[in-house]
Amino acid sequence: MDIKIESLTKTYGPQKAVDEISFEVKTGEILGFLGPNGAGKTTTMKMITNYIAIDRGDVSIGGNSIKNQGDKLRRHIGYLPEHNPLYHDMPVIDYLEFSAALQGVPNHLVPARVKEMVKLCGLNAEKHKKIGELSKGYRQRVGLAQAMIHDPEILILDEPTTGLDPNQIVEIRKLIKEIGKEKTVILSTHILSEVEATCDRILIINKGRIVADGTAETLRKQAKGQELLTTKIEDGSAEEIEKAIRELPSVASVEIKGDGRFEIQSKPEMSTARDVFSLCVKNKWVITEMTPSVTKLEDVFRDLTA
Ligand SMILES: Nc1ncnc2c1ncn2[C@@H]1O[C@H](COP(=O)(O)OP(=O)(O)OP(=O)(O)O)[C@@H](O)[C@H]1O
After folding, report:
1. 66-81 pLDDT tens trace
2. Which residues form a coiled coil (predicted)?
3. Mutate to test the pocket of ligand 1, among 8, 9, 12, 305 (most ligand atoms within 8 A of CB)
4. pTM for this predicted structure
């Protein structure tokens, strides 16, 4: 089931929390929703899931507007909110049964669905504990189980790996990736390695507006257009080599890194590798290493949102 968002807007008092954003997510796609604190991620997710009213614009799910058919469409959506509202006095099993009933799972299917979610989210050892007795990571797992209990086609996950330990993070990412093959998933996170590991596409939002939309690779390219090269050059003095590299027409900057290594930044849309190679041949310097550095997603994020 596809999600189409058109000119979605939400204003709180004088502040536009979400400002005319438009994007689509296709079935089988996992979209990573990134942005600094207060960018508008949670507000957007709440509008997509029909938890808060839309001021302007629309969200359509499988071609139907959430404005007109919100209640009906909610059955197709699983939502893990940022602050996972769990009933602390309820045992895990009871809570999942209750959630299944709330989401309209037919009575005779509830035990099987609960059993499947307990298995999928690794809750077996904890299933008889009260939610209040669980660790933070296990509560998050219960939240995920609750979001998926009615087997929705769409999953909206607000920071799904918050509070999980590194082992659990790997497992939950694996789970989301698996689920994402058939479903439509939007997940928000502050962990940039998480979007790279889990998502097919990244959307970056800043001050309520979309500032980037693409794969990690395309965002890297768009962000800088400048290439970074680390080389190790021998048989010359560092100062002499640095000066000669700096004078090359394709080079924007060069830094001595020690141990014969130099970090060379190209001018926009240019490549330095050939120039550096020819320079070394001419001067009888020997290149023993030449590695292009990848622009970090952290740098892309900072460029777009700082
Ligand atoms: N109920 C509300 N009343 C007033 N302002 C709100 C309300 N909810 C959100 N906001 C404001 O809207 C803006 C967007 O908030 P939102 O929670 O969507 O950001 P976010 O990207 O999810 O941030 P974070 O990464 O910190 O969770 C913020 O400036 C926030 O203070």
Report:
1. 888 877 888 899 999 9
2. none
3. 12
4. 0.81
